[in-house]
Amino acid sequence: MPVWVSALIGLGFALAGSCAVAQTSDLVSQSHFRVCADPANAPMSDQAGTGYENTLATVFAEKLDREVQYEWYPMATGFIRNTLRANRCDVVIGYAQGHEMVLNTNHYFTSAYTLVTRADTAISHVDHLGDPRLQGMRLGVVAGSPPATHLARNGLIGQAHAYQLVVDRRHASPIPDMLDELSAGTIDGALIWGPIAGPLVKAGYPDLKVTPLLKETTPPRLFFRITMGVRQGEKVWQRQLNSLIRRNQAEINTILRDAGVPLVSDMGTEMLGAGQ
After folding, report:
1. Which DSSP letter does residue 28 get?
2. Hey, how many other C-beta atoms are within 10 angstroms of the C-beta on 71?
3. Dist CA 114 CA 212 (whole Å)
4. Virtual CA dihedral for 185, 191, 196, 202, nearest 10 degrees?
5. pLDDT per residue over 9-59, tens digit each?
6. Which helix (H) or strand (E) covers residue 202, if one does?
7. What spatial distance separates the first Cα and last Cα of the chain, rounded to whole Å?
């Protein structure tokens, strides 16, 4: 190969590398895996590091040979503006696919809303909100969440007990409150996002049963694909995380299952088996 051809090839690789760095930008730390997270959002993340998103952050940091560094901020109004967009961190570990405030990676799991009941009640086997056994029941639901629309459609909203949607978890805990009231018999069932319900019930509510709602055919959908979120425009960083997700999907699934997260198919129609 002529020397000048080798030189051009070498220059091409050098330029490609420079472009990659430019696209990633100087904002992404090369020494730390900087995570934007809520300090009091168990079972997903907390400042003690007990959440499954904390575990995932540690795994990804190890794969990148970096140290985990957190920027703590309550997952409420202003979260992305004051963390990711303020360049104080580089990734949100769990973010719903398609949200315009971030650039989404490929999704690394799909889950669904669930109906949580006491295991010994007549509605413990209900798996869809059109089931007539739910009529007259007092169901807890987070105000403004997708299941609330289904409750209204099925004539169940009149007796529903609403819980706050956006709160600072350092001062309020609507989902644990809902589960406590369910255990006490104040309400008959609770409609909760599976990645919250499953781990909380597994960790502290042995009398409760979690049933993913996979049979709803009318909008709004009750299943969502979860990604990692990065800053808009940082495509190289996004692709790097996509590669890590693809190569470590089995380990990711194990972490989520061990935590109690119900994993469902990409279209939200069936539960994934242990080998998937």
Report:
1. S
2. 17
3. 4
4. 40
5. 333 433 344 344 444 466 899 999 999 999 999 999 999 999 999 999 999
6. helix 194-204
7. 48
Residue 84's contacts (CB-CB under 8 Å, 6 or more residues apart) are 36, 90, 91, 92, 102, 229, 230, 231
The CA distances from residue 202 to 148, 179, 224, in Å, are: 24, 12, 21
- Indicate whether this model's pTM tops 0.90: no
Q: Note the pLDDT tens digit of each residue in 63-113.
A: 999 999 999 999 888 999 999 999 999 999 999 998 779 999 999 999 999
The structural domains of the chain, with segments of one domain joined by +, span 110-212
**CATH annotation of 110-212:** 3.40.190.10
Rounded distance, CA 31 to CA 64, Å?
Answer: 9
pLDDT in tens, 219-264: 999 999 999 999 999 999 999 999 999 999 999 999 999 999 999 9
Number of Cβ atoms within 10 Å of the Cβ of 162: 15
Name every residue whose Cβ is closer than 8 Å to that of residue 44 and which is 6 or more positions away in sequence: 38, 51, 52, 53, 93, 94, 195, 196
Q: Which two tokens stand for residue 78?
A: 């202003």
